[in-house]
């Protein structure tokens, strides 16, 4: 699924989260917002999600490492790694982070990175992030249950990674009503940050 002008200097390749497809309201908002900012966005689904569409059965993705080969094939099909920024929502961003250096892409975007499994901080998903060479932009809700601001601050992460925290945001960037912030504001901020990042590195 492609959105945005073909004349864009960069291409942003986005994968979905573990349990939601590429055309969720979250993914649609991000893709349309980036397209409006003049960027070309390509979205795709992992095989398990494509199968779910046809079978109606909610099969899970399995281990993230099982999806890396497919992500690499999509990157190869696009064929412009020096102009390509890869990433995704949660699980999709995690898989992207696992292949970014190998693929030689220009950048990495993670929209709510799952720094640890739900309710289990004892198993961080950060080892490969310690030596990441690809420039990375992580958009993270301050109270994300898969890695809040306090938790993330304790991890050893590569200096190539920049993290932008969204005030009082959860894993999908939604703030509480009493925070004085809105989801629309946070989605707009995320789009602006990704667009800025893309223009800086490509």
- Report the count of strand segments: 7
Approximate helicity band: 25-40%
Radius of gyration: 16 Å
Shape estimate: globular
Give the helix/strand class: alpha/beta
Question: Given the structure, what is the number of helices?
Answer: 6
| SS strand fraction | 15-25%
Name given to the CATH architecture: 3-Layer(aba) Sandwich
Tally of domains? 1
Q: Report the CATH superfamily.
A: Alpha/Beta hydrolase fold, catalytic domain
CATH level 1 class label: Alpha Beta
Q: Average pLDDT across residues?
A: 94
Describe the structure.
By secondary structure, the chain is of the alpha/beta class. The chain has 6 helices and 7 strands, in the order ββαβααβαββαβα. Helix 1 crosses helix 6 (183-201) and helix 3 (68-78) packs across helix 4 (91-103). The model has no long low-confidence stretch (mean pLDDT 94).
